[in-house]
Design goal:
The complex is a heterodimer of chains A (265) and B (254). By secondary structure, chain A is mainly α. Chain A contains 13 helices and no strands. The longest helix of chain A has 26 residues, at 8-33. In chain B, 29% of the residues lie in helices and 24% in strands. Chain B has eight helices and ten strands. Chain B has a six-stranded mixed beta sheet, sandwiched between helices. A four-stranded antiparallel beta sheet of chain B has the order 2-1-4-5, covered by helices on one side. Classes of the chains: A mainly alpha (265), B alpha/beta (254). The A-B interface holds A 33, 147-149, 151-152, 154-155, 158-159, 161-168, 208-209, 212-215, 217-218 and B 54-56, 75-78, 80, 82, 84, 93-97, 99-101, 103-105, 107-108, 110, 112-113, 138, 140, 142, 160.
Chain lengths: 265, 254
């Protein structure tokens, strides 16, 4: 363990991992309760468009991922509230559309290389000091917003219409939630990868729900599961030379199966 | 009985969906302290009317005023408690204790980041006490019976200390015994707490003794100021689409 933490890149990866586990699990609690789990997959693919633009045009891919993911989140929310389209259909359309755009940009720019691969599946080796600072700054803002409006977001997740008739600004807060989720996903893809971040956002909460406890305890259990998965996933990844994102997701899957079996009615 | 302040003032309200007329030229007023029941056939527009009063649907034309203000300028929604049709159908997996749900009633009253104030806690406790669910506060809502869930939903609405309570057939899936005590509770809230009640129901005979006025909605509205007489009137029978008759609720003598 001491040997592992003596490496600078592992210190950075652990710091980034702890931040991402916290952000993904807390935002994931609201996303899952709103039955909006698939949005994390769609936004992760939209973030890839930003990464592709960044890699091809020479901008910071993480920043571009944040911009494109937020734009995509707003587009989803606009389409959902302004047109009579099914939410899951909107998510499916934008998911495949984003992936197609990302692949075309990258292949036209000739940047289909290891750099993109690390954003697809995550890489602890790729986490720079600058990435950690970016995750810390934007993550703190995102978490602050979630905590400030947690009671309203919980009410909306429970019953959107009743929340609206109680004076809660449902439309505005739905935009806020998808914006925060977009930021968190874009920040996370460096470590977990865009194809796997959805799992870290959704599975800890779904596992926590199996224990049938109140909202606060569900959020705390979800946070604990995400932290355990990230820390154990990164450790296994270091010692067995496994890809970090996939190992983290397998760890959270084990927790899910154990929770499911242990709480079977 | 004289009422002065109209809580809801609806004038010439029309609502069309894809060319179909759902509500036709509805005009009505609901005053402070009233107990109004709304009846009508399924698809007659009862729920649509309620949704418009709550700002969830926008009328094709016509005007709605709440406490004298045009609905688009009305902001004090916490004065109105709403219990929807699906009240007793709670998702069993939703992570919520009774206390979590009832506390939602105070959400729009608090400021950012603040925890529940002593006043909030008192209002939540008071609402649970009135609904006789204080001993259930730490139970998960998904484990409760239909009747208990119904009380939880009303407690949530009461926690914001509303002046008016709007209930849309909240007793679907609730057993008869629970329904009876529920009606007694609504009557008590109206008489003792002076809460105005607007109640969509099919069990009009059972609550005929409690209600002040009866609105029959089937595209158009017929307003009957004496519900017992209204229940036998030809006009209502025609609107309701079946032979309507009154089933008297003989109260038990203790």
């Amino acid at each position: 363990m001491t040997e592992m933490l003596s490496y600078d890149f592992m210190q950075r990866a652990f710091l980034a991992g702890i931040l991402i586990a916290t952000l993904a699990s807390i935002s994931g609690t609201f996303v899952v309760l709103k039955r909006y789990s698939m949005i994390s997959e769609t936004l992760a693919h939209s973030a890839l468009v930003g990464v592709a633009v960044g890699l091809v045009a020479g901008f910071n891919p993480l920043w571009m991922a944040v911009v494109v993911a937020i734009t995509s989140a707003w587009l989803i929310e606009y389409l959902r509230s302004s047109f009579s389209l099914y939410s899951d259909a909107i998510l499916a359309i934008l998911l495949s559309g984003s992936l197609a755009i990302a692949v075309i940009i990258v292949s036209l720019g000739g940047a289909f290389n290891n750099s993109l691969f690390s954003y697809l599946f995550g890489s602890i080796l790729a986490v720079s000091y600058e990435d950690v600072v970016t995750i810390l700054v934007f993550g703190t803002i995102a978490l602050g917003l979630l905590l400030a409006f947690s009671k309203e977001l919980y009410f909306i997740a429970y019953d959107e219409e009743v929340a609206q008739t109680s004076g809660v600004k449902v439309k505005l807060l739905n935009f806020l939630l998808v914006t925060v989720v977009a930021i968190i996903i874009a920040l996370s893809i460096r470590v977990v990868g865009s194809l796997l971040i959805g799992a870290l956002m959704v599975i800890p909460t779904v596992s926590a729900l199996q224990y049938r406890v109140g909202f606060l305890n569900t959020a705390l259990i979800s946070l604990a599961f995400a932290l355990i998965s990230v820390l154990s996933g990164m450790t296994l990844s270091f010692y067995f030379s496994l890809p970090s994102g996939a190992t983290i997701v397998l760890c959270v899957l084990v927790i899910f199966v154990v929770s499911l079996v242990a709480n079977k009615k | 009985m004289k009422f002065k302040v109209p809580i809801f003032d609806v004038k010439n309200l029309n609502f069309n969906v894809r060319g179909q007329k759902v509500l036709l030229n509805i005009s009505l007023e609901i005053f402070n302290g009233e107990y109004v029941a709304i009846i009508g056939p399924n698809g007659g527009g009862k729920t649509t009317l309620i949704r418009m009063l709550l700002g969830l649907e926008t009328p094709t034309n016509g005007e709605i005023r709440i406490f004298g203000k045009k609905i688009k300028n009305f902001k004090q929604w916490q004065q109105i408690g709403y219990v929807p049709q699906r009240a007793s159908h709670v998702d069993a997996n939703f992570p919520a204790t009774v206390l979590d749900i009832v506390s939602m009633g105070r959400v729009s009253k608090r400021s950012l980041f603040s925890r529940m104030s002593a006043e909030d806690k008192e209002a939540v406790r008071d609402a649970m006490l009135k609904m006789d669910i204080l001993d259930l506060k730490d139970k998960m809502v998904g484990t409760l019976s239909g009747g208990q869930r119904q009380r939880v939903m009303i407690a949530r609405a009461l926690a914001s200390k509303p002046e008016i309570l709007i209930l849309d057939e909240p007793n679907t899936g609730v057993d008869m015994a629970s329904q009876k005590s529920f009606y007694a509770l609504l009557a008590k809230l109206n008489k003792e707490e002076k809460i105005t009640i607007v109640f969509i129901t099919h069990d009009i005979g059972v609550i005929a003794d409690d209600i002040g006025r009866l609105f029959t909605i089937n595209q158009k509205a017929v307003i009957c100021n004496n519900p017992k007489e209204a229940l036998s009137c030809e006009e209502m029978t025609e609107l309701y689409g079946i032979d309507a008759h009154l089933v008297h609720n003989h109260k038990h003598q203790h």
